Amino acid sequence: MGWKIKMNSFFDTSVIIKYGSFDKNSKDEFSLKCFNYILSKEGKFLLAYYVEDEIKNRIKKRRIIFQEALNKIKNPSYEIEKTKNYNELRASDKAYLKKLYEKLKDKNIIDAKRNLSEEQINFEIRIDQFLKVLVDERIIKINEIKQELVKVLNNFVDDYADCKVLASAIQAQEKRDIFLFISCDDHFNPNTYKFVKDQFEIDYPKDNYKFPTLKNLLYED
Amino acid sequence: MANVNERDKERKTPKEIKQKILEALNNKPLNAQEISKEINSNWSTVKNYVDELIEEKKIKEIIATDKISYYQKITETYYNIPITQKQENLFKFLFNAIIQEYRKNNKLPRKTDLAKDSVDVINKLKLNLPTAWYIYGQIPLMIPDPTKEFQTTDIPPNAEEIKKLISTIVKINNGMKVRERENNHYLEHNNQYYLLKNNLLNKIDSMKDEKEIINLLTEFYLACPISNYPEIFDLTDRFYLVVNKLEKINKFKEHKLDILLSLDVLWKFISSFLFLESLSKIPQYNKDDLLQFNLGSAIETKRYCAEENISNLESIYLSELSMDLNLELSKEALGIREIMSGWDGR
């Protein structure tokens, strides 16, 4: 008949973060992929409440990284290692903080703050646009995520947050046509995803869990 | 050692007992047991006098967080913060002398004049009177109401010196506008935070140069204390971000009044902390007591108002947001973006 079926998309947090990081002059190819995927929207965009919550938490964390770098630039004797904020960051976040500090430490503090803010504001506005304009449906409230499903997923997927995202997707999939699970995170690499899906079919045949179709932009040309 | 009953037999007059109760409440509110201990009298003896003092509106009963009744002296100070009788008399003398100086020229001082003149005299003569930094700068702790009569028979030994200085100060500041007076006061004390606040309010009000406003806002943000009061910093940060976002989506001018209102309530919250902080440096006050009995609920109300206004500004920004925007980064910001490119926030 020639009709192209427009599949709906369920987003993992990583895609939205990458989308927010897009700039037309940036060399980051994955942010470009996420940007292009989102802007060439086909079908409905589905967002789990848990993913929205994660996005907001990551934005907060990004603000903390910037703020702590700024505090150190503002006052070189600032004992960053003793702060609660700094100690709650992961080692990888601390590495980004250090790089930001090194880049900006010789700048005038007002310019440093303006540069950091411009980047942050731009990043946040793009994500706000996505949340406000592009999301069609918010699904699976956080308290509706089935803990037993999360627990089972945790047998195959190490990261607990990933399990909650995937559980939200699987629960949303129950009463819907198959949609795309869009990710840009190697935690959801095609091999792992297939393995989890296959294991579910073997271990829980009666539960009829339906998995969305993975589309991981990290592994696509 | 005399016990309580024996001391009661010393037969203090009712007036003496009431005076002792009031003196006991000079520094902070006390509960029944504490008053009793402080004035060396049995609680049942002083109970009637406490009730009488409540009737006379000289003290009031307050319930602290642990649901125990405390008795607080009613004073004419901000937030009913206690001052000694000596300080009250000296404040009255000072206010009265300033008002009289203005009356010589058939004028009445404005509240700002009375406050700033008092503070100038207190600072220059190092008078033992509590002052604190609040919304519009340093103020005397006793409310300077120019419409009130501040009569006192207690004349300080340096009365003439005080009057002479008042005369000089009033002459110097004659005809000065309130804003100018405030600004001079901030400059004199080199208080950059207050200067920035005033400058920012003026620039937003005139709304001539958005870039200049954003730069001033950045300076204001950078002047915000980060360590002592995280609540102040969090709200300042949110305000800074949302104003920048409104500017980025070209909706800054359109919502000038909402921005001004938010800054105003944010400043009221910030200055209530500055008030607490400056008072806590005076040896007669204890920060925890001030929070518990005088400022805690006021600060909380101001925090709530600031939070409400900033949330409102955030919802305005979201309602104005569309996809039709140019979000290209400057070269400098792109450098930051490149550093963050691998960050996924896990």
Structure write-up:
The complex is a heterodimer of chains A (221) and B (346). Chain A is α/β, with parallel strands linked by helices. Chain A has one domain (9-219). Helix content of chain A is 56%, strand content 8%. Chain A contains nine helices and five strands. Chain A has helices spanning 13-20, 29-39, 49-74, 84-87, 91-104, 109-134, 147-153, 160-173, 190-203, and strands at 9-11, 45-48, 137-139, 180-183, 213-216. Chain A has a five-stranded parallel β-sheet. In chain A, helix 1 (13-20) crosses helix 2 (29-39), helix 3 crosses helix 5 and helix 3 runs antiparallel to helix 6 (109-134). The longest helix of chain A is centred in the N-terminal third of the chain and has 26 residues, at 49-74. The radius of gyration of chain A is 20 Å and the shape is globular. The mean pLDDT of chain A is 94. Chain B is mainly α and 346 residues long. Chain B has three domains: 4-74, Winged helix-like DNA-binding domain superfamily/Winged helix DNA-binding domain (Arc Repressor Mutant, subunit A, Orthogonal Bundle); 80-186, no CATH class; 191-320, no CATH class. Chain B contains 14 helices and five strands. Chain B has helices at 4-8, 14-24, 32-38, 43-55, 85-103, 111-125, 159-172, 178-188, 192-206, 210-223, 230-248, 256-280, 287-320, 331-340; strands at 30-31, 59-63, 69-73, 131-134, 137-140. In chain B, the strands form two sheets. A three-stranded antiparallel β-sheet of chain B has the order 1-3-2. Chain B starts with a helix and ends in a 6-residue tail after the last helix. The model of chain B has no long low-confidence stretch (mean pLDDT 92). At the A-B interface, helix 1, helix 3, helix 5 and helix 6 of A face helix 10, helix 11 and helix 14 of B.
